[in-house]
TrEMBL record:
This is 5'-nucleotidase. Its EC number is 3.1.3.5. GO terms for molecular function: 5'-nucleotidase activity; metal ion binding; nucleotide binding. Gene3D superfamilies: 3.60.21.10.
C-alpha cells in the first residue's frame, strides 16, 4: 500500500508561536518494493485496467515534484518497510530498491522491520545509498554501535531542520519486536519508542526546537499510544499496519478508511 498525504500544519498548542508557518508534509509508508503501479488489489496493472491503477514510484515522484513547485515549505518522509513484497526484492534484494528509494527526494525516513530481514549485510548498502543521496535516516530507538557491519551507519537519534526561522525536530523509530520478528543480528539494539522519544524530546526542546515530528514504523494502535504518552509530538507519520486513513469519499469500496 502506498500513501501520499498532504498535511497543513496547525497543531493547536503551537499555534501562538508558529501561526505564521505553513508546513506541508508529504509521506509514504510500506512501499514494499512496489516500484510499478498496481491495481486496487495490489496486483500487476495491465492495459485493460485503464485508469484504475494506483501508486508506483513514477506517479509519487511526479506528484511530489508538483507539490514542491506549488508550496513553499515541504518535507517528504517515509515510514519504513522499503524491502520485501515483489520480485524486485525477492530476486535482487536491496540493490534496485536502494537505487530507486535513494533518488525519490525523501528528506527524512525511518526504517521498518523488514529492512532487517536479510541481516545487516543487506541493510548496510541501503543506508550507504541513502547517506550519499542526503536522505536522513532517523532511528531514535535504534543502536548500531556494537554491530561491525552497521556501526559506520549508526542512525541519528534526531534531526533538526530550520524553516522560516522555526526549528523543526524529527524523531524516528521502528517497532522494538523487530529484534525477534526479523533478522537484525545479536548486536543491533532496539529500545521502546515512548521512552526513547521522551528522552530525545528533552534534547530537542533544550536546543530551541519549535515543532516536533515523529516518523514511526510501529503500527496504528501503538502510534496512537505514542502521541498520547509523548504530547510534545505535533505530527506523527506512521507505518507498519498498512492502515487506510482517509477523509475523502472517493475510495474503492473494498478499502474502507479506518480513520481520518
Amino acid at each position: 500500500v502506498i500513501v501520499l498525504v498532504l498535511i497543513l500544519y496547525g497543531a493547536q498548542h503551537c499555534a501562538a508561536s508558529d501561526k505564521n508557518l505553513t508546513l506541508t508534509i508529504l509521506h509514504t509508508n510500506d512501499i514494499h518494493s512496489h516500484l510499478e503501479e498496481s491495481n486496487k488489489f495490489g496486483g500487476r496493472c495491465f492495459p485493460e485496467d485503464n485508469s484504475s491503477c494506483y501508486g508506483g514510484v513514477a506517479r509519487i515522484v511526479a506528484k511530489v515534484k508538483e507539490i514542491r513547485g506549488d508550496e513553499k515549505n515541504v518535507l517528504f518522509m517515509n515510514g519504513g518497510d522499503f524491502f520485501q513484497g515483489t520480485p524486485y526484492y525477492t530476486l535482487l534484494k536491496q540493490s534496485v530498491i536502494s537505487e530507486v528509494m535513494s533518488n525519490m527526494g525523501y528528506d527524512f525516513v525511518c526504517l521498518g522491520n523488514h529492512e532487517f530481514d536479510d541481516g545487516p549485510e543487506n541493510l548496510a548498502p541501503f543506508l550507504k545509498r541513502m547517506k550519499e543521496s542526503n536522505v536522513t535516516v532517523v532511528g531514535t530507538n535504534t543502536d548500531f554501535s556494537d554491530d561491525t557491519v552497521l556501526k559506520d551507519y549508526n542512525l541519528v537519534k534526531s534531526a533538526v531542520r530550520t524553516i522560516d526561522g522555526k526549528k523543526i525536530g524529527i524523531l524516528g523509530a521502528v517497532i522494538p519486536d523487530t529484534q525477534f520478528t526479523s533478522n537484525p543480528g545479536p548486536n543491533v539494539k532496539f529500545s521502546g519508542e515512548i521512552e526513547s522519544f521522551q528522552k530525545e524530546v528533552v534534547n530537542l526542546t533544550n536546543s530551541g526546537v519549535n515543532i516536533i515530528i515523529a516518523i514511526t514504523h510501529s503500527g496504528f494502535k501503538r502510534e496512537i499510544e505514542i502521541v498520547q504518552k509523548v504530547p510534545q509530538i505535533d505530527v506523527l507519520v506512521g507505518g507498519h499496519t498498512n492502515t487506510f486513513l482517509y477523509t475523502g469519499t472517493d475510495y474503492p469500496k473494498e478499502n474502507k478508511p479506518e480513520g481520518p
